[in-house]
Automatic annotation (TrEMBL):
Record CDD domains: NAD_bind_Shikimate_DH (cd01065)
Protein's UniProt name: shikimate dehydrogenase (NADP(+))
Pathway(s) the chain acts in: Metabolic intermediate biosynthesis; chorismate biosynthesis; chorismate from D-erythrose 4-phosphate and phosphoenolpyruvate: step 4/7
A Pfam family assignment: Shikimate_DH
Length: 265
């Protein structure tokens, strides 16, 4: 870390619990590599104190922004002065920039990180038919980023149907030109298959979709980072599919966060 002086800019991350977060290490090394005179500090805050902390952060003139993670991504939306249309529709914010006048501007970069990760790996979602397993927090962000990328069809398949319906409704309101369908466990007929459920995180989890329907022309993408090769990825490879792991989403997202929070020399 560079020497902290009176000129050093401050960024933060808000979480509860906080001890496991890796963002401080990742973004502090990024700043060091780029010669940014700044530091990102973990702020451990519970839900009951979020409003008080955020009002304090607005007053802190050397604070440039902060990352927001579990469990605050939804509650932070109403505490920002300005939120992107996309983050508003998703109902969650994970990165906040503090403007010079103290205004807090919120954005949701989970989905953009996923799409950037795909592209970095040479997989272009524009014009493609996408099968998306899940309709939770991560799936919402990814669905909006895929719609933004201009996919030709988005099929949402989730265990709880009402959540798929709700996501489809919000996508229709915000991206009326993107066809959205509700799917079953069968991913056939889609060029890119995405697992955005939490299935695969724990050993013994059921597979998020019917892998017997996968064909070698399909690409199967994960959001699960650990294990690096999930049971879904292993099954997809066995069926001749190309696979895309969960990790690039994180690396790309850190880059987008640094850009949004203006972490520059
Ligand atoms: P995250 O923020 O990581 O997306 P989440 O919002 O809790 O977490 O979403 C978890 C996703 O995994 C949801 O799509 C969830 O399905 P439901 O909406 O039906 O709960 C899905 N999921 C988790 N456990 C599952 C299981 N055993 N079978 C099928 N889907 C599951």
């Amino acid at each position: 870390m560079t020497e902290i002086t009176g000129r050093t800019a401050i960024w933060g991350i808000l979480a509860d619990p906080i001890h496991h977060v890796k963002t401080p290490q990742a973004l502090n090394s990024l700043m060091q590599e780029r010669g940014v005179d700044g530091v990102l500090i973990p702020f451990h805050v519970g839900a009951d104190d979020l409003t008080a902390l955020v009002s304090g952060l607005k007053a802190m003139r050397n604070l440039k922004g902060f990352v927001v993670t579990v469990p605050h991504k939804t509650a932070i939306v109403d505490l920002c002065d300005d939120v992107s249309k996309q983050a508003r529709a998703i109902g969650a914010v994970n990165t906040v920039r503090r403007e010079a006048d103290g205004r807090l501007v919120g954005e949701m970069l989970d989905g953009a990180g996923f799409v950037a990760g795909l592209r970095e790996n040479g997989i272009e979602p524009r014009g493609r038919r996408i099968y998306l397993a899940g309709a939770g927090g991560a799936a919402n962000a990814i669905a909006f980023a895929l719609a933004e990328a201009g996919v030709s069809l988005l099929t949402i398949a989730n265990r709880t149907l009402s959540k798929s319906e709700d996501l489809r409704q919000r996508l229709a309101e915000n991206h009326p030109s993107v066809p959205v369908e509700i799917g079953t466990g069968d991913p056939s007929g889609h060029e890119i298959v995405v697992n955005a459920t939490s299935l695969g995180l724990k050993e013994g989890d059921p597979l998020p979709l019917d892998v017997t329907r996968l064909t070698p022309d399909q690409t199967v993408a994960e959001i699960i980072m650990q294990p690096e090769v999930t049971a879904l990825m292993a099954a997809a490879r066995e069926r001749g599919c190309r696979t895309h792991p969960g990790r690039p989403m994180l690396a790309c997202q850190l880059e987008l966060m640094a850009e949004f929070m203006e972490m520059r020399p």
